[in-house]
Amino acid sequence: MRIQQENIKTLVERKANAKLGGGQKRIDAQHEKGKLTARERIALLLDEGSFEEFDMFVQHRCTNFGLDKQHFDGDGVVTGHGTISGRPVYIFAQDFTVSGGSLSKTMSEKICKVMDMARQNGAPCIGLNDSGGARIQEGIDALAGYGEIFERNILSSGVVPQISGIFGPCAGGACYSPALTDFTLMIKNTSYMFLTGPAVVKSVTGEEVTQEELGGASVHATKSGVAHFAAENEQEGLDTIKELLSYIPQNNMEEAPVVPTNDPYNRVDDLLNEIVPDNPNKAYDMSQVIRSIVDDGKFFEIHKDFAKNIIVGFAHMNGRSVGVVANQPKFLAGVLDINASRKAARFVRFCDSFNIPLVTLVDVPGFLCGTQQEYGAIITNGAKLLYAYGEATVPKVTVTLRKSYGGSHIVMSCKQLRGDINYAWPSAQMAVMGADGAVNVLYAKDLKAVEDPEEKAKVRAEKKAEYEELFNNPYQAAQKGYIDDVIEPRNTRFRVIRALEQLRGKRQDIPAKKHDNLPL
Fold this sequence. Notes:
By secondary structure, the chain is an alpha/beta fold. The chain is 39% helix and 17% strand. It is elongated and about 105 Å long.
């Protein structure tokens, strides 16, 4: 009996030591930087008392450079499973207090274990990154560990949701795991991501740049689009992950949870009848339209500060999750450019992977022109969005509010890309181009033949009026069946919800293939 008690005492002591990571001194140093520890983050993210830890006693196996004399239980990452709002999740959180969170082979094995379990058991996998990169002392073993993690990211893609939280450094090859996951969140001023740091940049290019300027949260949330969210602090970041999970299913075989609402499905909003200006060149705020039609006016925006000319995010309609994609006339007139196309395409593909219906609100004058866009492959990037909509088999409901011109009309979930229900407001304009451009093409000879400036202006106005009468309304498209109905704006919520209910049993297949070859 005495030996058993001693064994239990040893177990308790060893677990207590493991929970201290690299020790109290390093924990204090982490706190002085305004950062939480790995275990503190897990405790705030998961339901209280739900965390079950795996591999607490794993230690590295490296004997190089004196590491055989330095061991910590857990070896720099905390792994396990728990629940968020009662729903199972798997999680790993890198522990910066142990060797700077650097990745060893055994660390990678711990991470791969929970990733495999998440995929096999059909639950989201959350990674909280806070690491100095590969453990240099382990050489190729550390690199092999990264490769194993990346392969799991790829195998899990489209099977279970993968979310990355960047709560400290994430540099070099380590960046590729978050890039392979579905959503990436960063913390302002305390997290950064880059393939090569400021010192290397300076030695190679001569450019002087700080860590924040090179790969901080604000940079990746506004310029590169690598980060979907930039939180003010760690608590806000963890709360954002919780909210994100509330809109998405556990895996690709399930639907997202239904959220009860007291918001009537047939609620009307007279504001929508007046929101589109009479002047077609005048802007309005599309986010007002979104909040007007979704449950309780609640919209969870993704990539809020990146490519603001298009809006993507999650909402509920009649209690069920939907993905919303909408052009934003307030920014660049809602035009599609490289970044907007990439942003929306990635979001559409996520929704299609996880059975989330798509609601698309259209007011798009075209693709952005110019050498910068053409040299940057706007053709290929625009094709990504076209491909994503055409490939998607989830219910797709499209509402055209105003402009829908040229190639951008096709790209925004038109009927020919297997849009299920396509509505239009009476203010909708569907044509190859706007009236001014069309008159210049269609009546170029007529205008050239008129020498008197006043007469030419009169002819131009007449031809423009003819063109607008023909195309500045939705009825040409409705006559041909490209639009299923022209609806009164105030009824948009009711009509979209009813369309989604109708489509709940939708079944649509794609031709058998190994995989697609989308335009990357």
